[in-house]
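Worked Example 4.2. Read the sequence first, then its structure tokens.
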Amino acid sequence: MNLEDLKIETYPIIPEGGQKVNYHSRGVKITHVPSELVAICTIERSQTKNRDVAIAMIEAGLEKINWNHHAI
């Protein structure tokens, strides 16, 4: 998998109760553009960890569908 094939987006997660004070961008959405496979992760408290989990999800999904970057 080439990192250049990934579109990475981040967005804020609003805590339960609707409090919008002291929150940061933590959610991560990663799209593998050639295959259109999408992974969204919001479970970790760190954006970096969410990114790592989402990339692992993309890698697992590509393996599951036997993705070949030479495919049409």
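Now turn to a second chain, presented in exactly the same format:
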Amino acid sequence: MGLLVDGSWHDHWYSTKKTGGRFVRSTSKFRHRLGGKHFPFDGGRYHLYVASACPWAHRTLIYRTLQGLTDAIDISVVSPLMLSEGWAFDDAHPDRLYDETRLHQLYTRADAKYTGRVTVPLLWDTVSETAISNESSEIIRDFEAWGGRVLRPCAMTETIDEVNDWVYRDINNGVYKCGFATSQAAYDDAVTALFAALDRAEDILSRQAYLAGDVVSEADWRLLPTLLRFDTVYVTHFKCDHKRIIDYPNLWDYTRQLAQVPGILDTLDLAETRLHYFASHQTVNPHRIVSRGPDVDFTSPHARGPVVWA
């Protein structure tokens, strides 16, 4: 999440000056897909760059686990602090391919003329030594095609896409629209939409097992990273404090059910996540004080039973 403009890096990677105080997310640059003749499903060929804090990167880590690809796809994890030069590597978070010091060096390694946001996840091809994709929604579908566990059943795709649309707009990205708003009107609009969407999800889960139907699907795994960060980060840091997830009986049970799928909590590092948000967003938290935060136990019992797969 850095910004490269005319070769200069800026710590303010977003601007709301032209949008009435509203945060508007830009689109991804690299959009190649796995599975064809250029990028076949070859174990050991690809490398995934992620940040522990980033919910978009977390999607790909979740799918890497669910699809049994942890041995096939190696990872590098950037430092939780994203300061003047964007995502960086350090001794505890090395670039395991090239020993670079900044993620933007991978972007310009792939495209010497690249300018724009430098984001995670970034899926890299070690054979052609170039970036394949930095679009998480496409990376997870490629991982599904590779691993074979069905999370996007053909009969459910229309419903999944409909749910993804409002969940992304008002929840996944909605928390950012609350946190990065620079006008009261922009914040009021975003926070109203956010909690209307959470109320909608709570209502759906009171009537059926999962967001898109009776089996767990892509729609659920795309929502989970936001739910896992909500009470510990977004409530305080992004002013999403009207309710917590633990105040929603169905959403809280659902969050724990998904989190307790084997391997999922291994993809979550809340300490690095909290450090990133509170210490990196200096326009939101200029003194970079990391709050104490609540005690949230994702391993506590729930009443939903085992996950139902397609």
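Notes for the reader: Residues 154-280 form a domain with the Glutathione S-transferase Yfyf (Class Pi); Chain A, domain 2 fold (CATH 1.20.1050.10). The chain has two domains: 2-147, 154-280.
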